[in-house]
Amino acid sequence: MLEGRRIVLVEDDEIMGASLLQRLTLEGADVQWHKGIARALPAIRTTRKPIDAVICDIRLPDGTGEELYDTLTRTGHPPPFLFITGQGGIEQAVRLIRSGAADYITKPFEIGAFLKRLATVMRPRADEEMPPETGITAAARAVDRQVAEAAARDDALLIRGASGLGKLRLARRLHDLSDRKAAPLVVCNALRDRVGFEDLQSALRQVGEGTLVVIAIGQLESAAQDALMAALSAPRFRLVATMGVPTAEDSALRADLMALLLSHEIVVPPLADRPDDAVWLAARLFPGFNARRAAPLTGLAATAEAAIRAHDWPGNGRELRARLMRAVEAAEGELVLTSDLFPERAANAAMRSLAEVRDAAERAQIVAALDRTGGQVGEAARLLRVSRTTLWEKMQKLGL
Q1: CA-CA distance, 245 to 265, in Å (whole number)?
Q2: Which CATH number, 3.90.1150.10, 3.40.190.120, 1.10.8.60, 1.10.10.10, labels domain 272-348?
Q3: β-bridge partners, 142
């Protein structure tokens, strides 16, 4: 029933936790058991493979399941949550369902009913089998899943994200997965070109029953926006538009066109929030660059991978691609080194910034306090002589 499923169990009660762990494992699931928020949060947020479900008690020693769920929703789309609660927590559980959680079950429960409820909330296995296009993290897999789901519909779609995240690639992927793949895909790039009324009319004639991709739709001239909105009143084509993160570009778009697009939107998270995807993308690009060398390299050094994971990638995938291409060309040994990827750091290598030193010291102290208290955030805050709120905020900042 649960063969190959990946489940995170967040339960501080030893008897309940051990019982669920044993049964879920017997059913074939791969289970991670955490007894508090401090350990569960990074396990869910930075997992290398998609998590099928989170089973979470609402009352935990270092907070509540609601706090855990809310924290995850601020930065992405959490896996399906099945909350466990007593009779007194039903009101809170219902509030969580309204916030997007999958379901809840009250104690005491019969294990058969629990397993059926769990099977209901988990995503279809096909999501797990879909090859990665955007990355391997849960956030990237969510984007790939949304693209696949959108390909089965005909609604106008907005793909939003910062520059360098491959929004046009996703639009092409959507077209290739759709029933319109035999028809043309026509791209209007309003970021690069002035796209006016005549340009849009020409694109509409070319696209027929295919997919019209409008890059930076907020920069279309007003006459082109009017023509597009008129064509969308009875469209033969599928519109896929792209925009950057919310800017003044939003206000430059007709309000009715913006409302139409926002009803079906895919948001691509920045690479800075997905360090494992940065390493995955580098590994995916490396063979192509390496094939151009007269003397091929062995690969990327482990320290170079660590540097890729730590970099904030303001230019996202476009920056990573440019840096890796240059690094592969410049590498002199058998491996790509950190200095090949970030040559500008060589001049500053001898001195770390005060912020870097402070963050490293705070991280070490927090980890030590959590280890000493068995992950109890409140007790760790007492040892560190800060409020629990302050400690929680620092843990968020440092990715703990």
Answers
A1: 12
A2: 1.10.8.60
A3: none
H/E element holding 181?
A: none
From first to last of its 400 residues, what are the pLDDT tens digits of the chain? 688 889 999 999 999 999 999 999 998 899 999 999 999 998 888 776 778 899 999 989 999 898 999 898 887 778 899 999 886 777 888 888 877 888 888 888 889 889 988 988 886 654 445 678 899 888 888 899 899 989 988 999 999 999 899 999 999 999 999 999 999 999 999 988 889 999 999 999 999 999 999 999 988 999 999 999 999 998 899 999 999 877 655 678 899 999 999 889 999 999 998 999 999 999 999 999 999 999 999 999 999 999 999 999 999 999 999 999 999 999 998 999 999 999 887 665 555 667 777 777 787 788 777 767 766 777 788 888 888 778 877 877 776 6
* Residue that is written with structure tokens 């706090």 in the block: 67
Domains 6-128 and 138-269 belong to one CATH topology: yes
What ranges do the domains of the chain cover? Answer: 6-128, 138-269, 272-348, 354-398
Q: Does 6-128 carry CATH code 3.40.50.2300?
A: yes
DSSP state of 270: P
CATH of domain 354-398: 1.10.10
Please list, in sequence order, all residues whose beta carbon lies within 8 angstroms of the beta carbon of residue 85, skipping any fewer than 6 positions away. 57, 58, 59, 92, 93, 104, 105, 106, 107
Whether domain 138-269 has CATH 3.30.40.10: the reply is no
